Amino acid sequence: MSAIPTTARKLKNYVGGQWIESRTAQYENVYNPATKELICQVPLSTREDLEHAAEVAQAAFEKWKKVAVPRRARILFNYQQLLSTHKDELARLITIENGKSLSEAIGEVQRGIENVEFAAGTPSLMMGDSLATIATDVEAANYRYPLGVVGGIAPFNFPMMVPCWMFPMAISLGNAFILKPSERTPLLTERLAELFTEAGLPDGVFNIVYGAHDVVNGILEHPEVKAVSFVGSKPVGEYVFKKGSEHLKRVQALTGAKNHTIVLSDANIDDTITNVVSAAFGSAGERCMACAVLTVEESIADEFIARLKEKTLGVKMGNGLDDGVFLGPVIREENKQRTLSYIEKGIEEGATLLTDGRERMQGDGYFIGPTIFEGVTPKMTIWKDEIFAPVLSVIRVKNLKEAVEIANKSEFANGACLFTGNAHAIRYFRENIDAGMLGINLGVPAPMAFFPFSGWKSSFYGTLHANGKDSVDFYTRKKVVTARYTEPTFE
Ligand code: NAD
Question: Looking at residue 2, what is its pLDDT?
Answer without folding.
Answer: 38
